[in-house]
Amino acid sequence: MTIDSGFNHITVLLNEAVEALSVRADGCYLDGTFGRGGHSRLILQNLGPDGRLLGFDKDPQAIATGQALAAEDGRFVVVQRSFAELGAEVAERGLAGKVSGVLFDLGVSSPQLDDPERGFSFLNDGPLDMRMDPSRGVSAAEFIATAPEEEIARVFKEYGEERFAKRMARAVVLRREQQPFTRTADLAEVLKVANPAWEKGKNPATRAFQGLRIHVNNELGDLETGLEAALDALEVGGRLAVISFHSLEDRIVKLFMRKLAKGEQDNLPRNLPVQYKPFEPRIRLIGKAQFASEAELKANPRSRSAVMRVAEKLR
Ligand SMILES: C[S@@+](CC[C@H](N)C(=O)[O-])C[C@H]1O[C@@H](n2cnc3c(N)ncnc32)[C@H](O)[C@@H]1O
C-alpha cells in the first residue's frame, strides 16, 4: 500500500488542540485519531527525548503513515485499533492512570472522504463501503442489502437527522428488491429522488450518507466508550481534548464532561426522599467550547463545523 495516496488532510485546530493538552516534555500522550499525523507531529515537537506518544487509527492508510513516522521517531508508536479499545491497549502497555493527555479529533479524514474508492462520497462514484477499517465489520453495501426497512430509516433519522428518513428507506428497499446497491452514486441518486425537500446548497443525500457512515463505523458507540477509557487512562492533572464535527458527537462530549465536572443531571421525580450526597467532580472544564478562527475558516472550510472541548482529570 502506498503511504501517500495523493489525498491530503489539513489538520483542524492544530495549535489550539496541542496547546490544550499542555504538553509536558517527559509526558506520555495518546492521539486517538492519528489520521495523517498533523496533531501527532506537533505533540512530538513539544516532547523531549523521554516523552512518548501512542497513536491509534482504524484506517490502514493512516496506519501506513503512522508506521513511517514511527520508523523516524522512536518516541512514537502507532496501533491499528479503535480508540474505544484504548483501555485494553493502555493496560497492555502498563500505562493505565499514567497518561498525561488524550486527543480525539473525531470523524473521517479528508483522504477518506475524497478518495472515491473508500466509498464515502456521494459526489464521486465508488464502491459503497464507508468503513474506516475495510478489513472489519459490515460495509454500507451489506447493511443496505440486508437491514430491515425500519432499521435503515432509524439510521438515516438518528445519525443523519434526516427528516424524510422513512420515505428514503422505503425507496432504498423497493429498489434493492430489483437490484442490489453496490455504488455510492447509485444510492445517492435513489436518495435524491426520494427526498422531497432539497436544502439549499446541500446534496439531498448528505444526511442519509452521514447516518450510514456513523452507523457503519459505530462512531457514537466508540465515542462513548472511548471517553470513559480516556478518563481512566489519564493521570491526575492529565488533559482530555476532543474535537467534534457534528451536533450528535458534540452532545455526547458535552454531556460526558458536564456530568463529571458538575454532577449528574437531576432528573429524579420531585418529592422523592433521596439521601443527599455531596458531588465530587472527577474533572474540571478548561475554558469554553472553542471554534476555528476566522483565518482557519478561510484556509480550510472543513473547520467550519469543528468544536473543541477540553477537560482536566481531578481524581
Ligand atoms: C479527522 S481525522 C484525524 C486527523 C488528524 N488529527 C490529523 O491531523 O491528521 C480522523 C481520523 O480518526 C480515525 N478514526 C475515527 N474514529 C476512530 C476510532 N474510533 N478509532 C480509531 N480511529 C478512528 C479515522 O480513520 C481518521 O483517520
Description:
It is a single chain. The chain has 315 residues and is an alpha/beta fold. The protein folds into two domains: 14-111 and 219-264 and 275-313, Rossmann fold (3-Layer(aba) Sandwich), CATH 3.40.50; 118-217, DNA polymerase, domain 1. It has helices spanning 14-21, 38-46, 60-72, 86-92, 110-114, 140-146, 149-159, 165-178, 184-194, 206-216, 219-233, 247-262, 294-299, and strands spanning 28-31, 52-57, 76-80, 99-105, 234-244, 283-285, 307-313. The protein has a seven-stranded mixed β-sheet with strand order 3-2-1-4-5-7-6, with helices on both faces. Helix 7 packs across helix 10. The longest helix is centred in the C-terminal third of the chain and has 16 residues, at 247-262. It is globular and about 60 Å long. Bound molecules: S-adenosylmethionine. S-adenosylmethionine (SAM) binds next to helix 2 and strand 2. S-adenosyl-L-methionine binds at residues 37-39, 57, 83, 105, 112.
List the helices and strands and how they pair.
Blueprint: H1 14-21, E1 28-31, H2 38-46, E2 52-57, H3 60-72, E3 76-80, H4 86-92, E4 99-105, H5 110-114, H6 140-146, H7 149-159, H8 165-178, H9 184-194, H10 206-216, H11 219-233, E5 234-244, H12 247-262, E6 283-285, H13 294-299, E7 307-313
Parallel strand pairs: 1-2, 1-4, 2-3, 4-5
Antiparallel strand pairs: 5-7, 6-7
Helix pairs in contact: 1-2, 4-11, 7-8, 7-10, 8-9, 11-12
Bound molecules: S-adenosylmethionine.
S-adenosylmethionine (SAM) binds at residues 9, 11, 33, 35-39, 56-59, 62, 82-84, 105, 107-109, 132, 222.
